[in-house]
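Good morning C.,

I know you're traveling, so I'll keep this short. The sequence:
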Amino acid sequence: MPRVLIIGASKGIGLETTKQALKAGYDVRAFSRSADRINISNSKLEKIRGDALLSQDIETALDGVDVVIQSVGVGFSDLIRPVHLFSNATRILIAAMAVKDVKRLVSITGFGAGESKKSIHCLQRVPFKLVFGHAYQDKTLQEQLIKESSLDWTIVRPGVLSPGLLTKNYKILETPLEWRNGIISRRSVAHFLVHQIEDRVFIHKDLVLIN
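The tokens, ready to paste straight into the viewer:
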């Protein structure tokens, strides 16, 4: 089975994806600045502390890996100032994957990034820009970098995230005409991500996920 590197594995979608990938039987390398605090004990889990903005850390984490799931995030307090984490981390990751000859990337951005920005309801555009504008401007750049790469990429844009239960009947919206915002649990997003480890149906696709 493929070995999976999960970047941003210590919390949120990354942590939930780590749990579900292990349950599915995959060897998982969990990468995070706080990886040592991941409270999971499993013989198939390798925890690596590192910084997604350091090329050496990322290249080390990519050794022997077949698939990368990228799930990085910023704190709410970081939204008031310009954000560069998503694009900078992605530049480093794409370059490192080329060095290590790793082709498969599944990256989580969010509804409102890239082309999906056009699908934000007119009444939501101003508050969305005020609160999330800095972050999603950078996520849009992140998506552009991924699409311009030679990787076998899939971009996943969840709607509003909730701590709810896993429901396997979530909607995978593939075309701009379908794209809309909605709520989806982190567990449901993780379920989709784990299925992308070996599924090639959505390579070179940018999707929206909602319940």
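Safe travels,
E.
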